[in-house]
Structures are given as C-alpha cells and as structure tokens.
Amino acid sequence: MVLVIIRTLILFTVTVIFLRLMGKRQIGQLQPFELVIIIMISELAAIPMENTGIPLLSGLIPIFVLFTAQVTLSYLSLRSEKARGIICGKPSILIENSQIVEDELRRIRYNINDLLEQLRSKNVADIADVEYAILETSGQLSVILKSEKRPVKPEDMDLPVKYDGLPITLVIDGQVINENIKKMNYNEEWLQQKLNESGINNIKDLLFASLDPDGTIYFQLKKGV
C-alpha cells in the first residue's frame, strides 16, 4: 500500500510539473495536438498507478517524450507560419458581411444550429448585425459586429475618463500580503492606521481588503465579527 501511495505521488507530481511547463490554458483554448497529448499523458500516468508490477520508468519516460513532443511542436508553430498552419490549422470565416459562408460550413462540418448557439453565447441574436464570425483554431468563435452595432465607447463621444487600474490585494483571511503593500511603498503600520479610521482594530478580523487605484480601501469583515 505504501508503495502504491509513493508511486502515485511521484506520477502526480511529475504530471503536474509537465502540464505547468506546457503553459497556462483552459481546456477550450487548447490546440488539438495539445489536447491529445494531455489525454495521453493522463492515461500513461494511470497505468503504473494501477499496476505496481510495471516499472515506474515505463510511465515516466513516455510522459517525458510526449512533453518533449509538445514543446517541439509549440516551438515550430511559433517560429514558422507554414508549420503553424499544418499543426494548428487555420481560422475559418463562417460569416462574412452578414452572409453565412456555406462552403466553409460544409468543409469543417459545422452546422448552422451550432453557429447560432455560439452567436447567442456572444449576446448576438441577429446575423444581420455580424460583420465577421471567425472560428478560431481553438474552437472558439470570434464575432466582429458591424460598426453601427458595436457598443458606444467614451472615445467615440470624446468623453474624458478616469484611469481605472487594478485594485491591489492587501489582506486575505486575516493575513497581510506584505509583498503588495511594499510595492505601494506602504507598510503594515499604514494599513493598521487606515483600518483604525474605519473602526477596525485587528487585521485578523478581516476576510478581505484591497486598495483601489484612487486610494480607497475596500474591506470585508469575517462573518460573526
């Protein structure tokens, strides 16, 4: 039993490390060859876990080979446009100037119901509003609306807008994120002083606190405090 646990932990650790090195992507953003490699790696890792009679290296070596293949293919697709087209495929234009491209739908075996479903998921109900709809190599549908149908932006109306940066997390579950505070050239004493002004004496009572770009501190107390 101990041997099974050790082998499982080793294979789990190696698999997680390799998947992390392969990059951060959601399942829906993976290229076909990346999805195949991930499925194969998971299968290869499961075999030595289930059968202790199989040497551990018999699972680790194929996993390493697949990882190397993924890195190599990714490098080739990064360096060569031609290789990228062969490995990852090319985007397909499904709608052009509000007209469904029937030949392309037939070529990739993509039916109109799927197309309409994807458009609705993008909050587009009318094909007449679409300038282009492009099926990306990851399987995601990119929709470009006609200029008159796009949401109005402040720059369209020459309206000045205030800078909207990213809030900085200061406290999570009572623990001060000192690294973030130092980035802002502040310290924990400054944070405590700001909290005292809001009637909070103990940082441990905070569930969450962050600093907005305008200098406002947002905080939420733990339940029951």
Automatic annotation (TrEMBL):
Q: Where is the YetF C-terminal domain positioned along the sequence?
A: 79-211
User: Mind telling me which GO cellular component terms the entry cites?
Assistant: plasma membrane
**UniProt keyword annotation of Coiled coil present:** no
| TM regions (residue ranges) | 6-23, 30-48, 54-76
Q: Does the keyword Secreted apply?
A: no
Please give the InterPro entries that the UniProt record associates with this protein: DUF421, UPF0702_alpha/beta_dom_sf
Q: Where mainly found?
A: membrane
Membrane topology value? Multi-pass membrane protein
Q: Which UniProt keywords apply?
A: Cell membrane, Membrane, Transmembrane, Transmembrane helix
Superkingdom of this protein's organism:
Bacteria
Pfam families annotated for this entry?
DUF421 (PF04239)
Q: Where in the cell is it found?
A: Cell membrane
Task: Tell me which family the UniProt entry assigns to this protein.
Answer: Belongs to the UPF0702 family.
- Name by which UniProt lists this protein: YetF C-terminal domain-containing protein
What is the native source organism of this protein? Answer: Syntrophomonas wolfei subsp. wolfei (strain DSM 2245B / Goettingen)
